[in-house]
Design a protein that fits this description.
CATH class of the largest domain: Alpha Beta
Oligomer: single chain
CATH architecture of the largest domain: 3-Layer(aba) Sandwich
CATH superfamily of the largest domain: P-loop containing nucleotide triphosphate hydrolases
Distance between the termini: 99 Å
Number of helices: 21
Strand content: 15-25%
Number of domains: 2
């Protein structure tokens, strides 16, 4: 007889706040909420953050990490200003990776459905809480947390009005009104978010969503589509780790962080403050040493620099052997040759790589031939010299990109070489370049002592856009186009374990990079048409 009142009291507590829903074992079961996670949950509902949370201090071990200065994690996450005691209509949560954002978003979805104000609605009208992301797979991760908790909790399961579907679930609001939580794909003008009432809306990976000046399917139009359809008391949630310093979420952060009002709450959580069990000081330092840019976005939750060197100069220098310029053929070694043809302005570059018996990737040789518009290179003469260089290593086939591959194939055949065309475009090309960076950072590459090659490699840029990472090969005043970089890219591609090196990267829109590729192809076609090949 005593258990029933206790069960009712616990049910009331679990369903009574986002904080309890997230942290109770009968809710979403995260019983180890950190002080910052607790503070985020309270602030998102307009509840005051108590002094013991506001004044919480980081551990001394964390204080020694790169980029960490302030001692108070909760204060810092809110920009030093206590949030207002008012339930905001929009919550922007910018936190590091592996910090429970998807679970929090799932809790927010359930909470929005439970609080849905159905006043004046007609029977048959079913309001919705859409979960929108850059890709439906990302939104389904949040949906998976939600369904798992609803199905396993004795407190939450009675909320289900029917068994969950593949991408939607129907639950009961506090007013016994059916509310649907559904994974929804982004669409032009927010067309997938209209035609019904909304109890709230969750934008997952929002920092990676483009603005209306950048994309047809964009965050601003999605917001515009939902804001007039949200029932009283409903919230918009925008979650994700910071990325490019552009786009609607970045602009909101710049305007509102540390300046809360009753409409918008912006919070930025460092990964080690939200999940110290995974983000130990040792793991944080390892990521910083391996990839400082990833540490900046994924751990410190700061927006990336807009453009940085892909291959840091000090690492390229450290990976260059002092001598010899060429390595002699080694028994049992595996060889790969790549070239980037160019007859005038751009250099014609050749590199040969080997993988020795210990798995080390070593550059055997690097050579270039440079022509001018007045005195362009003769392709048959260059390919004859290329053949003389590579055949002693047992190489009879050379990797090259798609530019000029067809007109050079017969010429190469005449000197005993075959050409293997590498057609990587857009995302695949970016993966290879970032794979080279990964091997450089982990000291798995050895370059020849070529100073020109060094200059080409350190000139390659990694540009961060809202939609991902784009590789940029700047043109210098002498007409070079980082000419050794493409040769290394095509030669090293076969050695790279790509899935292992792109875990935290999202790639640029291939259409944007295709425009650059088309311009380069047009330039090279013009060069080809005006070049004497024999």
């Amino acid at each position: 007889m005593q258990s029933e009142p206790l069960d009712r009291a616990r049910r009331h507590r679990v369903l009574g706040s986002l904080h309890a829903l997230w942290g109770d074992e009968m809710g979403f079961g995260v019983t180890t909420l950190t002080p910052l996670q607790e503070a985020k949950a309270l602030a998102s509902e307009g509840l005051p953050i108590p002094d013991h949370l506001w004044d919480h201090e980081r551990s001394k071990a964390v204080m020694g990490l790169p980029g960490v200065e302030g001692a108070h994690d909760v204060r810092e996450a809110f920009g030093g200003r206590r949030p207002m005691s008012h339930r905001p209509s929009k919550v922007v949560d910018l936190s590091g990776i592996r910090t429970g954002k998807s679970q929090q978003a799932a809790c927010a979805g359930v909470r929005a459905a439970r609080l849905c104000d159905s006043t004046g609605m007609r029977p048959g009208e079913v309001p919705r809480v859409p979960i929108v992301s850059t890709a439906t797979d990302n939104a389904r991760a949040t949906f998976g947390h939600l369904v798992g908790a609803l199905s396993s909790s004795s407190v939450l399961r009675p909320l289900l009005l029917e068994e969950p579907g593949a991408d939607s679930v129907l639950i009961r609001s506090e007013r016994d009104w059916p509310v649907e939580i559904k994974v929804v794909a982004g669409a032009r003008a927010g067309s997938t978010l209209v035609a019904r009432w909304l109890a709230g809306c969750i934008f997952d990976e929002a920092p990676r969503m483009l603005g209306q000046d950048e994309a047809t399917v964009n965050l601003e139009e999605q917001e515009r589509a939902v804001i007039g359809r949200i029932r009283p008391g409903g919230q918009i949630w925008e979650l994700g780790s910071p990325w490019a310093p552009s786009g609607p979420v970045y602009e909101t952060f710049q305007e509102m962080f540390g300046r809360p009002n009753k409409h918008t709450l912006v919070v930025r959580g460092r990964a080690f403050d939200l999940n110290p069990f995974w983000w130990t000081p040792e793991r944080c330092r390892l990521l910083f040493e391996k990839d400082p840019d990833a540490y900046r976005t994924d751990v410190l939750a700061e927006f990336a620099d807009p453009e940085t060197a892909l291959l840091p100069a000090h690492l390229v220098e450290a990976s260059m052997r002092s001598e010899p310029e060429r390595l002699e053929p080694g028994k049992g070694w595996d060889y790969s040759a790549g070239m980037d043809p160019g007859t005038r302005g751009n250099a014609w570059t050749l590199v040969v790589w080997s993988r020795d018996e210990h798995g080390k990737l070593r550059q055997v040789l690097s050579e270039e031939w440079v022509g001018t518009r007045q005195d362009p290179l003769n392709s048959k003469e260059v390919l004859s010299e290329v053949a003389a260089l590579v055949i002693p290593y047992g190489i009879t086939s050379i990797y090259t990109d798609q530019y000029l591959a067809d007109p050079l194939r017969d010429i190469a055949g005449a000197v005993g070489l075959a050409l293997t065309e590498v057609t990587s475009q857009g995302r695949e090309k970016a993966k290879v370049y970032l794979g080279i960076r990964e091997r450089l950072v982990t000291n798995q590459l050895e370059f020849t002592p070529s100073r020109q090659q060094r200059a080409d490699l350190v000139a390659v840029k990694r540009r961060v856009t809202t939609d991902g990472v784009k590789i940029v090969l700047p043109r210098t005043g002498d007409g070079r186009h980082c000419d050794f970089a493409p040769a290394n890219m095509v030669a090293l591609k076969r050695y790279l374990d790509l899935p292992a090196v792109v875990e935290h990267q999202i790639w640029a829109d291939p259409h944007e990079e295709q425009e650059t590729d088309d311009a380069e192809r047009e330039r090279r076609d013009e060069e080809f048409a005006s070049t004497e090949w024999y």
